[in-house]
Fold each of these.
Amino acid sequence: MSKDTLNHHIHTFPSPYFLLNHQEHGFGVIEGTARANSSLLLEVTENRIVVADTERKELLRVNEIIGEPLQRSTVLDRNGNSFEGCVNHNEPFGWGVLYDKDHNRMYEGFRIGESSSCFGTSFDPENHHVQYEGEYCNGKRWGRGTQYDKMGKVVFDGEWLNDERLERRVKIASHDDLFHTQIEELTIANGACNEDDWKTLDLTALSLLRRLVIGEDCFDKVKEVKITGLAQLEEVSIGKNCFLNGGRGHLEPTSFALKDCPKVKTLTVGYQSFYLFGRCELEILPSLEVIAVGGYCFQCCGEVRVAHLSALKKVSIGKNSFAQSTLNRGAFCLEDCPEVETLELGKGACYNALRCVVRDNPKLRRVVLKEGCFHAATELTLSNVDGLTELHVGTRCFAAMPAAEDAMRTLRLSHLPGLKEVTIQNGSFSFWGGLELEDLTALTQVTVGDACFALDPEKGSKEEKCPKGRFVLKDCPKVKKLEIGKTSFLSCGACELSNLPALKSISIGSLKYADLQRGFPAASLELRSMVGWSVINRLAEAAKRAAGRLGVRHCEACGV
């Protein structure tokens, strides 16, 4: 087995004790030990790879040389100590006993040249009691072993690395600090790991990792991050300004992957990290509860898919994240996450995404899209989200000029039994033609701001100037208040309010800006089945001027 082969199979050993250094495509082994099973032990040093059978006390392989029966003999070293056992080229090469000048045992076990190897027992030079029994690497205590005091009592029974007791909490602060395969908690200090030779961060070799904390301004040159197959990982926290790809831009392939980590619960990404990364993959994470991404992250990533995460409860994406990609524009999808309750996107997030799809999330309660989210999107899908109580769309969302084939889009919300409040702020859906709200049994309030659904028919061709859109609010028995701002629904040819027994207030436009209204300029108004309605109707001057085209039918409380 070569070192290159070993580097690709580090994670296959059940309990390796390897010191690691980073290489271009991941971590490589410096030295250490690993057991393949209860009897086979692997030792790796700078210049050799040894495989030994500790039960049969035989060397099976040294580098590419397959073990053969060796001569048993006695050789002297330069200090006058003698070794009795397997010898090759007049040097220790296998199992044997090392004696001092007075023929007192110093060591019994595997030995290659002048260093203890694989497994053995060392003895105190004064009283000749057992001093250490266990695994070795290149003469150093390494792996599992027991240390004794001069009276033969156990001082430490456990794990060793590089002749010291194993430390599972590791902090990397400089280029000289080393990783190892037994790390459970890994902290990267602020400003660390920014050398030019850091191209890939692949943590596959750290199979016992439970907690990963990366500070600020780290891994500046890395363009690929792989956190995959870590069965014990519970937390991933990444500070701000990390993984900036050296400012090389989105044309160079970059990716972040968190996959197949069954215990991970939280993923936190700080401000501007992964700024130029083009891919973000989250898969097979059955325990993940929180995804929190700060502002200006993954600017060049156009596709976001959060799916099949059975424990997920909250998704929070900060300002202008996933926002700037125009080369690989795709969709934001949140689907099949049965425990998710909250989706929040900050100002300008997913700015250039073409679609927003939220479906099959039965416990989702809040969807909050702040100013400028999904500016270029032509689709908003809310499906099988029966627990949804609040939909808040900030200003200038879904506001880009559409292609000709999408010129008359309609937002339809129906059969959402938990939805209580719909808020759409100024300038959102500004080039969409209509809004239809139907069979929303818990809905109490609808607020639509200025210049929403404001596709202007007067700017199209003769055929396009014919109003085609609709505003529909029907079969919503609990809705009490409807507010619509000025210059909204310019392309609507119909405004239907039907079966709204609790409706008390309608406000369309603003009396303060009567000359700028133009809301529903060509629509007929139909009010039906609204018994008990107490009318508060503030129609602006623009609506009054359209009164000749306005029809009102069957409103018993109005006497009409």
Amino acid sequence: MTGELTITLKGYGFVELPNQDNDIFIAKDNLHGAVDGDIVEIRFMKQKHNKQPDAEVVRVIAHQNQPATIEGIMKKYKLKQEFSADVLQEAERVAKLKIADCMKNRVDLRGLPIITIDPADARDLDDAVSLVDNTDGTMTLGVHIADVSEYVTANSSLDKEAYRRGTSVYFPDRVLPMLPTQLSNGVCSLNPNEPRLTLSVLMTLDKKYNLINYKITKSLIQSATRFSYDEVQAILDGQADHPHRAMLLKMAEITRKYEHDRQARGEITFDVPEPKIVLDENGQIASVYSQPHNLSHRIIETFMIMTNEVVAEHCHKLHLPFVYRIHEKPDPVKVIRFLSALTPFNVRHQIDFENPTGFQYQDMLKKITDENVKIVVSSLALRSMQKAKYDPHCVGHFALGSTYYCHFTSPIRRYPDLLIHRIIKMHLDNQLTRQQIDRLNAYVVAASQQSSQTELDAVAAEREVDDLKCAEYMQDHLGETFHGIVNGITDFGVFVYIPENTAEGLVRTENLPDDNYLYHDGTMQMIGKKSKIRMGDPLKVTVIGVNLHKSKIEFTAKDK
């Protein structure tokens, strides 16, 4: 286990572990030369009676005076890019699998107008979509997902490595794939004009786009066109033309209908920007900006949600061993903390901390008209939520307002998707014996726990790398001024978020605009003799310092 070491004035230490609520105590004699701020690996020692076990430092991964690096972050979370020789050899062998040998119980859908829509720089294309009109006035929406399980079989070296990694990890300058690139970027990726093995969910919609039937089948497809999100958005906006324009416009109509339906059932939409870090040809940061979430993105998002819900409900009704994607109701203590943080915003709400609903959160967010305030409140609301996770039991997805949900649509980069593909195919091929079901019932428990943890580690690592890159970017902008939003207030200063590049930094109390500010905990405000600073307030800041070891940015603000 790895984390950052903090040493107290009395000489003992605590290690903050990623995704853990409680810090780990380290006695002075167990520090073994590590100093405050070091990133260390620890191990637990023998537990004494009912006390928490002691821990000791095994090794220092990164010293406190060293700048943070992506390699150091990878070590911290035990992430690897390279694969072992046996895994690579197996990938080379299965990549040569002949499609003709995999056609049993598989339908040929290569005649459909199938497209992919992804980021322009994507290499692992998991999903493709199609839409055709039927003679009876209905239409069939097809979502076609790479059949990775045909190549990655149970208990193989590839499968064991995918289970261990759990997920692909995406950094600005590299990808740590769950599977070797011969599969992830090669025979499994739904590249255009190449036949690919898939699992397809064919959903029949009526004239009002209501789902009236579906079929899940093994399939063979061939994508006709690879689109980027920007290319599709230009077509939807009328700035470009394409033979698939009519299909894309109808896909947009379906998306709007299902977005409305999800809102009507209590889905919560959080307005939380995500950074996009662009590197130049030398690997240096060219720009950092907030990623757009246009209609083109929402088409794929909506179709994937529809598919995940159909598959989850289908498998739940069949009582198959399964891995669900669950999101439990918020913890009352976290909701109370969130409602207290809302006080400075004067936002009216009807959130019941003991029994909150998606509708209550949704109604509260809709009442906020100030976009700066909405960004801050959305972030605070998100922190009040439980973390979504994988589980063999279906308890629904709170934020989506969904009764049945799973992750089915990204088997190249997520192990739960790969596993449930395997289970569905065993069912389709009548291969689920009682012995197999008993084995899988135990396996989905272990896989759910493992995949939930690897996801937490991946998200934490990606966030740390983004913070590091934002800090490196702002180091090149020392002395420059930006327009920010106050998104946190403490007794030692205020935190400011910069919308144009998603950077976040601290303005210490002594660097606030000239006034004698005092922190008021009850209202989370800085109150001076002439003015006050509240969460969501605009604040013009200048970059005065960057700590690359901790990926921290400091600002000064001389006027609001």
Amino acid sequence: MDNTATQTDAHKDTREARFDTTAGVVSKMWPLGISIDDDKLVKYIKHLEDEGKKHYDSDEINLTKRRKLNEKYLFGRQLRGKKLKKWQSSYIDNIIGEAEGMLKSIAVSKMPDIIAKVDPEDEDKQKVGKLLTQAFDDEIKARETKKKLGIMFKHQPTYFIAAMKWRWDVHRNKLGDIAYDVIPPEQVLPDHTATSGNPDEMMYIIHYVTKTGKEWSMLFPNKEADIIEYIRTLAVVEGSPVPDDEILLSQKLTIPEVWFDWFDKAEDFDAEKNPKFNFMSGVAWRLGDKLLGKTRNPNWDYEGHDVATLDGRAISPEEMQQIILSGIEPDNFEIRKVFNNYFDFPKKPFIFMTYEQFMKGVMDETSRIEQTVKLQQSYDDVEQTVDYSIKHNKGKNVFGKQAGLKKKDISKLDMENPNQDLIVGGDPNKTHKFIQPNMPPAEMFIHIRDRRDRIFAKHGTHGAVRGEVTSRVATNTQISREGDFTKADDIVDETILHVATEMARAKLHMMKLRYTPEHWKKLVGNAAEFLEFRLDNDVIDDGVEVEVYASTVDKLKAERNAKELAQLQLIDPLTYYEDVGLPDPKKRTERLLDFNDPSGELSLYRKRHVEGKSIEQIAQEVVPGVPAIPEQGGTVPVNPGQLTTQATVPSPQDTSQVPGGIIGSARNFAGNAVNAIRGMFGGG
């Protein structure tokens, strides 16, 4: 027993040193050294990087050019850098940007609900699930998270992928906590050989991180000289003065951070008898042709700790104390090794958002923006032609020679000036004529309307969703809206809900890995010790599964249906408040019922919800002498005129001395008191 306690204490010392929340990940890498040769690793990383860039810049993929085109049309920058002639129109109606804005507002209008699904037969795990669900709910529904998911939702159709990276931030929430960073897609180079956007299927992911040379030297103090020399080779032009080291270290430096999987032969490898390989997940930073640093995946517990178990269940400190005092080791007592990991294996800390996957690569094969760029181009061409025609084809004034005007006189005329009058010779009807302008034909307006409708249709944002009345027939509008919501629901399910789920899973993993008692106390208050024990000492399997159970688009449908049912008076207040997503629906319902008191009086409402009095306090005011119900058993004085004996309020085990008129629960007493109050006010 004593040996077990010593081992546990040693584990705590090691774990606290490694996961010290006051220091960054890099400064605590000493337990995670890897034995891969630096030159060998640099060549491996450089090869992966070169092959990845070659693949994405190939004629078949042409990723950079396609991304720039999508970005240009998303933001309506078609005319930027383009020199227009005098007769060309600069008119732009950015339908793609409008459709994407509407779709994004639908996608993030209601954040998803995340629930920690646990074993329903285990009461302790049910409690764990409720505590974790609340933690996930606070994180996912934070305004900051909504903004990040919205940015990713806009990145995905523009760049064919959106990227998020999770990490431990020692400064977040004072104690340190998991942080989520949205990464510009051009700063990420995922495995070009993978066939999906799942990071677990990728052999490598490169993140191009930009920091000042000083920041890099603080992360890798033993490499400061190499960093200075590298910046000097990039920033200093031959023949120019060489800046001092501090100026060089102030320059921005982008370095590839490579998260990779590594397979190598085991020490006892034998091709025939023991073909064994070792797997390792690691991260390295490359500085030119040198390695700045390398380590095993820091987001993983490799050592584990010993846990005392009985019948396969972790023993609580109280149970352990009883066993020690008894001096008898019970049957099925065992010491097991437990690791503080939620994931099954070390994961690369990235979450990718994709939609148009076809099992051919990491990037989406296409996107809704790319599919509508040609339509927008056609729309722009015709719209600009119409705009020019209307602006410049203003008609012509023709004068006959009999009018007595010369060319010089006509050139001085301003026919658009309403204050200018003319005197012409002869009959004005014969000496002057106005030729009407040639207006664009109806076919051009039909073309414009068709292109506009097709763009909105491809994005799933018909007029009904945008709030436009497109039909007088309500069923047609409803069908159009439901069709768009069905498409939006599918998009949100594979994008927003996927990322939200992975965020919650990453948070649970980092909770198990890095949370201290102070973290748990701040998160769940008095339940901190219980939750920490259950998550840190789960022997075989947490039984905790993060599951998304509701769609954001489903919430929009529920809200709309609730409002329609309310107009028909076919919904109760509690369900209405729940469906429209108002906070604290039960309290709102209670207030509404008190406000709509059948007596027509608002005294009960004012006393309860304005003055903050309890039911018991109101009852004592209305019916003096009615005994209050204390929290603990004891004696309460009663009005002598009402009872001839002193009433003893019982403990939970003794109800023998309670007068018959008071027997019942506090809930029954409160109900009787309310009925008495309402009766005095004239209510039924």
Amino acid sequence: MAYYNHWFVSRQKRQLTTILPALVAFSDICVGKKWAGNTELQLAFEDELQKRDITEHGKLRARKQNQGGGGTRTLFKQMKDLGLVFTEEENGKCRLTLIAEAIIKGDITFVDAMRLQLQKYQYPSAACWAGSGAVDHTFKVHPFQFILRLLRYPPLENYLTTDELAYIVIHQAKSDDEMTFNAVSGWILAHRKDGFLPFSIISQVCVTDETLSEQVKDIKVNQAAYHNIANTFCNYLSLTQYIDRGYKTISIRNGKEQDVDTFIQAKPTYIPRPDLTENYIRAYGRGNAAKDLRDFDREDHKTVKELNEARIRKEYVLLALKTPITGITPDIVETITQNTGIDESFVEKFLIRCYPNGNISDFFLSYKEYAHMGTEGARDFELATCEIFKKIIKMRVKHVGPIGNTPDVFVESEEGQYCGIIDNKAYKNGYSISGDHSRVMKDVYIPNVGIYGEAKHPLAFFTYIAGSFGTNINSQIKTIYNETGVCGSAMPVDLFINIIQDYAEKGYDHHVLRDIFSVNREVKLSDIL
């Protein structure tokens, strides 16, 4: 059997935060039932995914005649890879690991759970031991810890490029030991200085004068494959909220250095026997428990009260991805009551008892993904921005985008006696203000703010929020300011998340926000420190 001689991780094309609602759907539909060869169950799982707006049948390819749930099986493998689900060796029945049960109950946030699972993620693993996606058994490394070790290594200056990950790290980092780390970091430094690559990778990814024309296609396939793997590792690391993504780079987010140092273990331990799939995944997914001692042969008869509590828990963790829950408020109670049909007073008492402090960390995972999803995530990006300004910043908010010839979001501060307009740009690549976008901001959005926003206070700023921006963004912002007299800014989504996460702790108020959004250029880290 052929093995990959590089890192590999299961990859879904959808955003990674869909793992959580998919896990809830798996719990409702699949647990206790046999998975392998059960096309009916796999299609029922896919139907449930569609109900939860995770995917459509065609996108997971499960509706092709006589082919069953193909993409659904990929999703199942991804959840196994993360130590969330497994099947019993004896009977093939689907089960949740302890960490997955804790996620669904809301006992641990999705962010904290992913931090724990990615810290323990290792080669060799059960998911990459045999079959498609198998990684050579000589790899003995914790890949996510290794990447963060590199970012914390001073000579690398807190950044890695996707080329460095794709062509050096995923191939050369075969061990956690110091010798391997020094060799990999040395290759990266050599690549930055002279463009050098390890000899073993050159023929796979480099086109030279000696390359035959028929080899060029294979080289391009290799380049794309290795970049996809590197990008997937970066996407997974984003779940920790420890890193920032730049243009083809990653770096450790300012203020997260101590958390990253805790994530990196001096002597990481290895889960034994990856060839024993059930034992391995149960050990990997045990969460903070010493061992998974559950006996699935014993039937667990739940009372109506317990069943209702379980339904409330599931709806709560799903809602936390869509809105920042700063505490148990009437709108949270109302939404969960409507989704479950359970008595409102029971829902309210249960939520206050179990989740008095709410959960905002999971929401920011979704928010960051919306910023990079293109038109598919545009409306969700706008609505999520409204939720941030309403629930965390406490401004009056109107989602004005659907009106037409308007920005996406209007906000107004009684505290600061001003209003602002926001245009969300869910671009997959860096956003630049085109001539038409500039014209409409100057001639329509700014002059008409009193009409669509029903503004009581003067317009203080306009801002664009996006995943990243083009190289000319500062001059484009300055042009709008010079022609209108209204201050503006370009707000990278990573920095905006930093601001909101630290909003109360750092004593930000509406006056501080006005200054940040009025810098007349792209907002920088130094503007918020």
